[in-house]
């Protein structure tokens, strides 16, 4: 999966190579496989997850579910204030994008296409698992961030690039720290297994 990690930081790539070397020395056979470009996976994942988030959060209107705004004049203001005060920027962003991909005229172009691509990704993993027991990849393209680090939304989405394939495919994955970067922050790797093969 070396092509799969080409966008990872130098520290993550080095930790990946060193861990592969250690696994070989322990007697494990390493088999190289090619994956669908992870940038496709991230687009598919966020289309589906934002659609699901907007659908699931629609009920939080301040009437029956969720936070109820105070000092309101009418029902419209109740909905607007409750949702704008009760949801953070990221949640609002996901609701708006989710509503867009589920809207008439865009459902087929985005959501339905993403679901079809999700099946392709799942089939790709299943094909790889015909020849291997586990898939080994980084958890993120960089080491862990400092606690008070504020990433841009795009940077935040891209940090999921190596974990979303397992999520889209319903596969179990185990992550563990394998090294530290120059600041002493952990670098994580993961083992992905076949569906229902956690044991």
Which key features would you list for this structure?
199 residues, mainly alpha, 3-stranded antiparallel sheet, 48% helix, transferase, Amidase, Amidase_dom, AS_sf
C-alpha Rg (nearest Å): 20 Å
Query: What's the mean pLDDT score?
Result: 88
Distance between the termini: 24 Å
Tell me the major beta sheet.
3 strands, antiparallel
Into how many domains do the coordinates divide?
2
Protein name: Aspartyl/glutamyl-tRNA amidotransferase subunit A
Organism: Helicobacter pylori (Campylobacter pylori)
Pfam families: Amidase
Keywords: Transferase
Commentary on this structure:
The protein is mostly helical and 199 residues long. The chain has two domains: 1-33 and 133-199, no CATH class; 38-130, no CATH class. The chain is 48% helix and 11% strand. The protein has seven helices and three strands; from the N terminus they run αααααβααββ. Strands 1-3-2 form a three-stranded antiparallel beta sheet, with helices on one face. Strand 2 (173-180) and strand 3 form a beta hairpin. Helix 2 (38-57) crosses helix 4 and helix 2 (38-57) crosses helix 5. The longest helix is centred in the middle third of the chain and has 22 residues, at 107-128. It is globular, with a radius of gyration of 20 Å. The two termini are 24 Å apart. The model has no long low-confidence stretch (mean pLDDT 88).
């Amino acid at each position: 999966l070396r092509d799969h990690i080409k966008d990872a930081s130098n520290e993550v790539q080095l930790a990946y190579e060193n861990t592969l070397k250690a696994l070989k020395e322990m007697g494990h056979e390493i088999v190289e496989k090619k994956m669908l470009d992870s940038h496709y996976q991230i687009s598919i994942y966020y289309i589906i997850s934002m659609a699901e988030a907007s659908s699931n959060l629609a009920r939080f209107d301040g009437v029956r579910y969720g936070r109820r705004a105070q000092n309101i004049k009418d029902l419209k203001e109740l909905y607007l204030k409750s949702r704008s005060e009760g949801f953070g920027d990221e949640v609002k962003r996901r609701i708006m994008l989710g509503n867009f991909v589920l809207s008439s005229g865009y459902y087929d172009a985005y959501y339905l296409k993403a679901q079809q691509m999700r099946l392709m990704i799942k089939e790709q993993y299943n094909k790889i698992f015909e020849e291997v027991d586990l898939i080994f990849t980084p958890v993120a393209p960089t080491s862990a961030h400092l606690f008070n680090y504020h990433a841009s939304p795009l940077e935040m989405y891209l940090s999921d690039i190596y974990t979303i394939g397992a999520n889209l495919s319903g596969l179990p994955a185990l992550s563990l720290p394998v090294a530290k970067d120059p600041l002493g922050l952990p670098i994580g790797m993961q083992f992905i297994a076949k569906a229902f093969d956690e044991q």
